[in-house]
Specification:
globular; alpha+beta; 5-stranded mixed sheet; 18% strand; Ubiquitin-like (UB roll); binds FE2/S2 (inorganic) cluster
Length: 121
């Protein structure tokens, strides 16, 4: 078998989907997030303010809490019971609240708008 022929992930950086993060201070950050990475990881990897992610994505801290823009809320997958109960610990939970570590990027979300929650308290 040739090196790199099996299991390699190929992507074209020119066509990577983007997420638009609006930070709690109102800063707009447009960031490329590779498919398979979480919305939380996209923020952490690009130093987007407001996402803390203390538990590293284990759905155990709620410091990746954010609000999905109303124009995208219907395109999100349903949350499971674990995310739902952890969100109860988040500051200012709303109908469009999600834990961004539980949302895995895919091409259909290109242009997704995420309003980052107040997680730095
Ligand atoms: S990073 Fe801890 S719940 Fe999302």
């Amino acid at each position: 078998m040739q090196a790199g022929a099996a299991g390699a992930r190929f992507f074209d950086p020119k066509n990577m989907p983007k997420v638009i993060y609006i930070t709690p201070k109102g800063e707009r950050r447009e960031v490329e997030v590779e498919n398979g990475y979480s919305i939380m990881e996209g923020a952490i990897n690009n130093n987007v303010d407001g996402i803390v992610a203390e538990c590293g994505g284990a759905c155990a801290c709620a410091t990746c809490h954010s609000y999905i823009d109303e124009s995208w809320i219907d395109k999100m997958p349903p949350m499971d019971d674990m995310e739902d109960s952890m969100l109860d610990a988040a500051f200012d939970r709303r109908d469009n609240s999600r834990l961004t570590c539980q949302l895995e990027m895919n091409d259909a979300w290109d242009g997704l708008i995420v309003h980052v929650g107040e997680n730095d308290y």
